[in-house]
Amino acid sequence: MIKLGVPSKGRLMKETFEWFAERGVQLSKSGSDREYVGRVEGVDGVELVLLSAGEIPRELAAGRIHLGVTGTDLVHEKLANWADAVAPVAQMGFGFADLIIAVPACWRDVTCLHDLDAVAARFRADHGFRLRIATKYHRLVRQFLTLQGVADYQLVDSQGATEGAVKNETAEAIADITSTGATIAANHLRILEDGLVLKSQATLWKSRNAGGDCGPLIRKIGAQ
Fold it and tell me: What is the CATH number of the domain that holds 113?
C-alpha cells in the first residue's frame, strides 16, 4: 500500500485536494474535522495520511510515507541533505511564498546584505551582543548568510508571529516567509534588495527511502 501524506487542514489541504481532483484522483477527509482519516478514489493501492505540513518532510525521509505534499521551504529547512532523502515529483502551482530577510523600515541606509553586515558589526560594538534575527528557518538562513559573508548576528527562534519580533524588541531583523509582502510592510519592515533566501511553493515529493511502487499514482496525475 502506497501512503500519500497531505496537509491535514487549512487552505493547503483544500488546494491539494483540488489539485488531485483535477487529475482524476479524489482525496477526502473522513469523519469530523478533529479526525485525521482520509480516503483516496480513482487509483488503487493508495492510502491517504493526513499530517501537518511540517511533519511531512521527516516522514518522507524516514520512509514512513511514499509521497507527500509540502512546501519547498519546509523540505530544505528540515532535511539537512534533502536531495538524498526526497525527490520532487511535481510543483503544484499554489502555496507560493518567499523566504526573505527584512529590517526595520526606518533603517534607510540598510538596503542590502552588505549594509546589514556593516550594521551588525557596529551593533555588536555598541551593545556588546550580536544583532538578533528572528526566524523559524535556522538552517536555511544560516546557510544563506554564511554564503553572503554576513557575520556578527545571532538567530533567535520565533514560533509565533515573526513579523512582530522587531516591534516587541525581541529581535532587530527577521527572516520569514511572505507571499505578498503586505504583513511585512504593515509591521514597518522592509525586505532587503538581495534578501531573497528561497522561493517556495507546494510540491509533491517522493521518498527515496520507502519501498513500493508509486508509478500508478504518479502516472495517473500525469507527472510521469
Answer: 3.40.190.10
